[in-house]
Amino acid sequence: MRILCTNDDGIHAPGLKTLEKIAKELSSDIWIVAPETEQSGAGHSLTLAHPLRVRKINRRKFAVSGTPTDCVLMAVKHLMLETPPDLVLSGVNRGQNIAEDVTYSGTIAAAMEGTVLGVPSIALSQAYGFEGREKVKWATAEHHGAALVSKLVEMGWPKDVLMNVNFPDVLHSAVKEVEVTVQGKRDQSNALIDTRMDARDNAYHWLGFQKVLSNPPEGTDLRAIYAGRISVTPLHMDLTHKTTRRAMAKELGGTPPKSVTPVTWAPVDRANGRKPSK
């Protein structure tokens, strides 16, 4: 099995070394194509306004001056064109990628791009706690990673689905179980904009979340990680909401509307979404 390893934390990230160890338990044919610098939060973005540069480190290891998506595209369509990978592994990310993280994450995006290109893809992330980024329990991902990836590959999954794996912030021996989860939702009241002033009295801002645990429902990726379980979430590339599409098609399908009706929006209903008032 030919495995492509990538990430969003950069070519020198410790999580990439962990991912390489996991991959080497599965195969001897390992390629690494990762961003030259950290690309956390890059999402599923491509570099279109600037040229990409590729730095060859050795025969099967390359650094790309772009996003994680760029790296997978460059690997599959250029560097590995003659013999494309059988599997894309992205990570191991420093920090969990759960709930809304999946839309921001470059780690998830690399697996998305692999899926778009027809290659089975798995994103792997290692959660860490409030004590900080320097105390990540990489050994947990390393200990459980290869067997879990092997089992997923053995099971298989649909071509338009990618696997999102998150390891909890516990020692590998303390992992309770694997849970197949759904994507959770963060408590957005914990969102934080930290405004500071520079030496010229100009404001600048850091985005983040307050260090407060939420209380997510059972079955979600958030709850699984809080409970010390490995979370495996199948993510679907088709973002169409089928129920809404069917309901809208009954009124909106057919001849385009010709009249304009003034609409006053009611306050947001958190359970049912925003609706026009009568």
List keywords for this structure.
278 residues, alpha/beta, nine-stranded mixed sheet, two-stranded antiparallel ribbon, 11 strands, 27% helix
Strand content: 15-25%
Oligomer: single chain
Tally of strands = 11
- Intertermini distance: 60 Å
Q: Order of strands across the widest beta sheet?
A: 3-4-2-1-5-6-7-11-8
**Tally of helical segments:** 7
**What coarse outline follows from CA principal-axis ratios?**
globular
Query: Which stretches are low in confidence, meaning pLDDT under 50 for 5 or more residues running?
Result: none
Explain this structure.
By secondary structure, the chain is α/β, with parallel strands linked by helices. Helices cover 27% and strands 24% of the residues. The chain contains seven helices and eleven strands. The strands form two sheets. A nine-stranded mixed sheet has the order 3-4-2-1-5-6-7-11-8. Strands 9-10 form a two-stranded antiparallel sheet. A hairpin with a 2-residue loop joins strand 3 (54-58) and strand 4 (61-64). The model has no long low-confidence stretch (mean pLDDT 93).
